[in-house]
Amino acid sequence: MVSPVTVVKSEGPKLVPFFKATCVYFVLWLPSSSPSWVSALIKCLPIFCLWLFLLAHGLGFLLTHPSATRIFVGLVFSAIGDAFLIWQDQGYFVHGMLMFAVTHMLYASAFGMRPLGLRTGLLMVILSGLCYAFLYPNLTGAFTYIVGVYVAIIGFMGWRAMAGLQLVGAAWRWTELAAGTGALLFIVSDLTIALDKFCFPVPYSRALIMSTYYAAQMLIALSAVESREPVEDYRLSKAK
């Protein structure tokens, strides 16, 4: 098992561009009421840096680790979704939701189906159902179904991220902790978006949404470093 201190020492320097790009976003704080390609670039820049973070481990690393590759592709779709959401008031909100739905499916696939974690799955079903039940009275038209499907997808991703989480004992791994914490922060970010858009104004919503979102993406990208299955192990598991 790799210790968290070792992880910080080895991976911390590779994340410096991400932290700088995140600071740039919050310092500039470009108004969301005036969308532009510049504001889209500034918003997406931290995600671009996470692309570089994974690529810094070598293209061979991505090619031989399917789960890391899926997380990388998920980050690509995330950046596209971020760009769409810059123009959400011009009718691109659903486009952004679609991109992030694809992201969550890729992340869930990266986290895998082992261990199954039925209790965690049941808990996520209950929490997802409660969230949708709270949102439902404020949804109209196609959003009634679109939001329901999205909640199910992100709930599934959260289940797969947390299914293998062991906080104590020899089975503890920092990668599962990073993935599980990242998934929970992503859910908090998206739930805040939904509450602010469909239910009531959330105080400091943008700061809450973006801080939890960037933290979630960083942790999920970090979870790919000690990847779960090289190609050889992946093929063996499929053959069994």
Characterization of the model:
There is one protein chain. With 240 residues, this protein is an all-alpha fold. It has one domain (4-234). It is 74% helix and 0% strand. The chain has helices at residues 4-11, 16-28, 37-55, 59-64, 66-86, 93-111, 118-135, 143-162, 174-199, 205-223, 231-239. The longest helix is centred in the last third of the chain and has 26 residues, at 174-199. The two termini are 26 Å apart. Mean pLDDT is 91; it is low at 231-240. InterPro entries: TMEM86B-like. Keywords: Membrane, Transmembrane, Transmembrane helix.
Concise summary:
The protein has 240 residues and is mostly helical. It contains eleven helices and no strands. 36% of the residues are buried.
